[in-house]
Amino acid sequence: MRYRLLGKTGVRISEVALGTMTFGEDWGWGASAEVSAKILDSFAEAGGNVIDTADVYTNGTSETILGELLKGRRDRFVLATKFTNQTDPDDPNSAGNHRKKIVASIEASLRRLQTDHIDLYWVHARDLLTGVEELMRALDDQVRLGKILYPAVSDWAAWEIAEANTAARLRDWSPFTAVQLRYNLLDRSPERELLPMANAFDLPAFAWGPLAEGRLTGKYLDGHTGRATEAGRPYTSVGSDDIVREVVAIAHEIGASPAQVAISWVRQQPARPVIPLIAARTEEQFRDNLAAVDVYLSQEHLDRLEALSRPTLGFPADVMRDSSVVDGVYGAQLPNIDDPRAQAVRRTTTGS
User: Fold this and answer.
1) Are strands 3-5 and 12-14 parallel, antiparallel or unpaired?
2) Cα–Cα distance between 5 and 109 in angstroms, integer?
3) How far apart are CA 219 and CA 199, in angstroms?
4) Which residues fall within 8 angstroms of residue 347, CB to CB, at 6 or more apart?
């Protein structure tokens, strides 16, 4: 296991994170407490130290299981949980991002997790009814109280995150330190706005769904699409099967599983600090996914996947990548500038 930094904080985080939405069987699927313990132990033995959960995962059971499993080794991990979604259908204030919800959610999560603080506290989703300044000030209060160490954000638009972090910096409040988003070979849309924003603000990106609801394992090539057809999951678009077939082919070539290839592709994105969230319902599945940390794709393999999956970024990104525009903006000497920023510009340039 190798490690990255949590933005400017200096905190060391493993190159993959453990997702625990599968911890608990309350939703009719998932892992029992016993299997969850084996998954967590496998992750820890491999050097993994980031655990991601949420107050709504398996109706709170995920946090409860983790609280028991982390006894005696809590500080060994960077423990992350989330709030926003409604937890009591009869209480309108049990949903959203307002201060009342934040305070109640933190206290409930701390009880279930059996800890006195949360390392990384995700805002699970955007609540348009709550002002950004209200949210950021409320989170900063919890940081000053020691209940959370670092605020973070999940499933927001890039401009919303930029607005929130700019407001926090202007007022000396705690900014978001990481972003969580959906990212995989079948959905590279975060490359349009979210990942460039994350780089600009030095926010590591945690990628949920690196296997595209299982599509990238190749098991749905027989025509069965399962959850991949649900609303909001663009995994059955034209050309998606070609990408999956290429993943399967590369897996055969290098002696890895398709899941390991798909996860490794996320890990190996150049100049993008992307951390895949890996999860499974069985210990065997998890061990297979975790072994992706030992799989490295060659440049040839990355190029083959790039050719099939490269997204259309839209305006203005596609225009600004055109070689004639790049020449005009950066000058003929761009190839001679020794700087990572210049290298990044050269990598994205397209032909006229």
Assistant:
1) antiparallel
2) 25
3) 34
4) 270, 271
The domains of the chain, with CATH numbers, are 3-297 (3.20.20.100), 312-352 (no CATH)
In the predicted structure, residue 100 carries a pLDDT above the cut 60: yes
| Residue 287, φ and ψ in degrees, nearest 5 | -60, -35
The SS3 of residue 258 is helix
**Model-level pTM?**
0.92
Three-class SS of residue 327? helix
Helix (H, G, I), strand (E, B) or coil at 100: helix
The predicted pLDDT at position 352 comes to: 37
Owner of token pair 């025509």: 223
Separation CA 237–CA 199 (nearest Å): 28
Can you give the pLDDT at residue 341? 83
Residue 229 contacts residue 236 (beta carbons within 8 Å): yes
Active-site entry in 57, 121, 183, 220: 57
Calculate the average pLDDT of the chain. 93
Q: State the pairing for strand pair 148-154/274-278.
A: unpaired
**CA distances, 2 to each of 49, 150, 325 (Å):** 11, 22, 38
57 as an active site residue: the answer is yes
Does an H or E element contain 325, and which?
A: helix 323-330
Q: Report the percentage of the chain scoring pLDDT > 90.
A: 85
Paired residues of 51 in beta bridges: 18, 79
Question: 341 burial class (0-12, 13-18, 19+ CB within 10 angstroms)?
Answer: exposed
Task: Give per-residue pLDDT as tens, 228-262.
Answer: 455 445 676 767 999 999 999 999 999 999 999 99
